[in-house]
Amino acid sequence: xxxxxxxxxxxxxxxxxxxxxxxxxxxxxxxxxxxxxxxxxxxxxxxxxxxxxxxxxxxxxxxxxxxxxxxxxxxxxxxxxxxxxxxxxxxxxxxxxxxxxxxxxxxxxxxxxxxxxx
Amino acid sequence: xxxxxxxxxxxxxxxxxxxxxxxxxxxxxxxxxxxxxxxxxxxxxxxxxxxxxxxxxxxxxxxxxxxxxxxxxxxxxxxxxxxxxxxxxxxxxxxxxxxxxxxxxxxxxxxxxxxxxxxxxxxxxxxxxxxxxxxxxxxxxxxxxxxxxxxxxxxxxxxxxxxxxxxxxxxxxxxxxxxxxxxxxxxxxxxxxxxxxxxxxxxxxxxxxxxxxxxxxxxxxxxxxxxxxxxxxxxxxxxxxxx
Lengths: 118, 243
Fold this sequence. Notes:
The complex is a heterodimer. Chain A is an alpha+beta fold. Chain A has 2 helices and 6 strands, in the order αβαβββββ. Chain A has one domain (3-113): hypothetical protein PF0899 fold (2-Layer Sandwich). In chain A, α1 crosses α2 (41-51). Chain B has one domain (31-237): P-loop containing nucleotide triphosphate hydrolases (Rossmann fold, 3-Layer(aba) Sandwich). In chain B, 35% of the residues lie in helices and 20% in strands. A 7-stranded parallel beta sheet of chain B has the order 4-3-5-2-6-7-8, with helices on both faces. In chain B, α2 (32-47) crosses α5. Classes of the chains: A alpha+beta, B alpha/beta.
């Protein structure tokens, strides 16, 4: 449900970028979505298909979401741990919980792919 | 089905077409518009020496009760509350009985508050001579998580009657919490709440947030929550702590 607003923000940002860069033939929107966010990629796709309807520029444009795995850095042993679906935010090397998140909380428009002849 | 874009068949052909495409780097956060407003709110409130708290939790977890109970330890005149609910001003009226200045946001179908909603309140109702802004988010363990609304501190209220599996089932809201209020602790036995499991699961998700056990009928159990917020405010505005 909360993906609705954020997908509209995504579309607004893309349209602004296209306007500012005079892009008229967009092909793909490449997005990075961290695994430690509360956003679900299936829902974003669902809302994207609904919300893009009024915008002719987006009619044939695919939204491609690359999942970014969560990574934490341990303040105790200085090593990094990749967070899997078990969602344990704890250093796997020394089991410290004194950690900070390095990756996994991003939701970024990484790039736009435009048709080559533009 | 294509895992990346959710389509049925196009992704393979995409790779073939890639050579004729041009890639323009953007690297812009999708939530940038919200986060810019949120950052401005936190900055302005810091300058006003107001600690902003994002109070999250399920419907019925006891968020409003926490605010009422805090007013026994933090003078009501020092607090201002923004209430987020889909409909009604029931909680606003309830808090006003405790002489707490309260503003209501009704999101209607919206499942969480955002920075723009908070900003609209603050633009029309400037905060004067307050120390704490408590934003009671819409009751929900999913959607408010990770959405910046101009808070300095995230507090999650989690009641024993919801069950001991909540950290495991809804990790993101617990992951970002600076403190957790484990409410209705006097019902733990009746609800067959497995505290050991709850604390174990919570530690795996968030090993640093303090956990405060509270019960509405034991007002003193909220003192530690008030002390935590007072300490956080002192830290925010650069006051020295007296231990």
